[in-house]
Amino acid sequence: LLTIISSIDDLNYPEKTHTYFIVNAPYIFSACWKVVKPLLHERTRRKVQVLSGCGREELLNIMDYASLPHFCRKEGSGSSRHSEGGSENCYSLDHPLHQQLYNYINQQARLREAVAPIKQGSFHVDFPEPPDVDTRIAKTIESGFDSLTLNGNKERLNNWTGAQA
């Protein structure tokens, strides 16, 4: 429970985190990091440590062996994808977790009855047609004339249009 609370706290309040250790980063990440790092604030640069390989030695300076991620416990490149032991390779389809998950999904699928799709009727929706551009222009002109009439300019308007008062 404490790990979950700590993770939620770190995700929502990253400024409280002292240091981020990035391990097993591909070369492209390291190259991008070298470009981006000078653009970051000094405080942020101090918080992020990109370790080469699995960073096992550096991590052992700050944590116990039991706390190391599984891919850092092995000697070599640090990548569990290339580990020898099949039972510890979490990327393998033969990993016990994947086998249990597969068996559980199959069991649940057998327990459920097949459900035929429900036929639904169709219906028509009328969309209002947008107002005609000419109609909008005419209404704008009429409202302009109405405002001239209201401002006491009716006589000047009649003289201009040739209409009788």
UniProtKB/TrEMBL annotation:
InterPro entries: CRAL-TRIO_dom, CRAL-TRIO_dom_sf
Gene3D superfamilies: CRAL-TRIO lipid binding domain (3.40.525.10)
Taxonomy, superkingdom: Eukaryota
Segments forming domain CRAL-TRIO: 1-69
A Pfam family reported for this protein in Swiss-Prot or TrEMBL: CRAL_TRIO
Protein known as: Sec14p-like phosphatidylinositol transfer family protein
Record organism: Medicago truncatula
Phylogenetic lineage: Eukaryota, Viridiplantae, Streptophyta, Embryophyta, Tracheophyta
Gene name of this polypeptide: 25481579
